[in-house]
Amino acid sequence: MTADELIQPEAPAKAPAPRQRGLMLLLLLANSSMLAVYMGVGSVLLPTQIAQIDPANKVAILGIVGGVSSIFATAFNPIAGALSDRTGRRNPWVVGGALASLAGLAFLGSVRTALLVGIGWCLVQATMNVYQAAVTAIVPDRVPAARRGTASAVVGLALPVGGTVGVMIASQTVERLTTGYLVLGAVAAGAALLLAAFCRDVRREPAPSVPKRERMAAFLSALGHHDFRWAFIGRALMVLGYFSVVGYQLYILDDHIKLPEGMAPAEAIALLTPVSMAAMALSTIVGGLLSDRWDRRKIFVGVSAALAGVVMVIPVISPTWTGMLIFSALNGLGFGCFMAVDTAVVTLVLPKAEDAARDMGVLNIANAGPQIVAPFVASAIVTAFGGYTPLFIVGGALSLLGALSVILIRGVR
């Protein structure tokens, strides 16, 4: 049986073209709203809130809060994916996760101590990953293998779209943190309700029940599959390199980069983000479409990861506003193409169609897991070496290792 046959849903329901186009738009909105929360809170609101609470220890506190909260993200994503497989439905998990995240964001915006900020962000990470697990599984559920690159590119636009919207909302509400948290939560909840209202669940057989003793082995069984394992490793390295730097961007702009006179770090992020996200949007679309047309995935994934690694030297050589603009554009090109085409690669190496959400949830450990390590590692590097230059070097090296991992995938060209 071919890889393409393995990932087809057991009972595919052919939908007319307009419905499929509607599905793609709804998935774009759902994923964009999710990333608006992650980027808006993680890049602007959370660092600002922590800096207000304890400016002297902001780097260390952000590292601890980010690391601990990512443990919740890592755990809840695959668990929620497995549960949605068991029920055979996605929409209840999408809506439930989004509404619970709105409540968590409301709590986060109301607290004023580092401990409660940490608890609040853990709640948001947990509930947003319930949402994410169900939304992620819809692509392998409903999109034919031949169109995975195109579909992944469309969904991949969520990063530039959602990231830009999230950072813009956060930057405009940085003086009113509670409002910023509530607006971002409302955006996610609204997108989830739209998806559930206009995209009914496809009828699918629930995944069979597994005895308790076998659940953990079954849960991680996809990692025993050669190609899936190397796709997992490559994604983990790339995400670790990216978030080691991006997670501290507000502080990098404040403490490392020479900004133009009168420009605040939050204003700088609001200008840099559209540059990075526009580049991501371009490379996401071009990479996804060309990977389908040429039926080649690995070359796009490898080259884009290498580009993202090499450009990390730019803020080291030129710690200026111009240097950051160039870095943001090139890093966006690399990361956008990587995430779009790598998602197509992953859907093509899933071991079993009936376990799609569970295995995509396991893959999402490669998204969330490195974010556990990244804040601790980044905080330790900055604290130990007294600056951000070593952080850029480590981030670049990790991305380059991610590019090398792609070579070891056999079942995808």
From TrEMBL:
Give a Pfam family name.
MFS_1
What SUPFAM superfamilies does the entry give?
Answer: MFS general substrate transporter (SSF103473)
Q: What is its main location?
A: membrane
Q: Does the keyword Transmembrane apply?
A: yes
Alphabetically, the GO molecular function entries are: transmembrane transporter activity
Q: How does it sit in the membrane?
A: Multi-pass membrane protein
Q: Does the keyword Transmembrane apply?
A: yes
Cell compartment(s), UniProt: Cell membrane
Gene3D superfamilies assigned: MFS general substrate transporter like domains
Q: Which residue ranges run through the membrane?
A: 23-47, 59-80, 151-174, 180-199, 232-251, 271-290, 299-318, 324-350, 362-385, 391-409
Domain Major facilitator superfamily (MFS) profile: where?
Answer: 24-413
GO CC terms of this entry: plasma membrane
The record's keywords, sorted A to Z, are: Membrane, Transmembrane, Transmembrane helix
Name the record gives this protein: MFS transporter
Origin species: Streptomyces purpureus
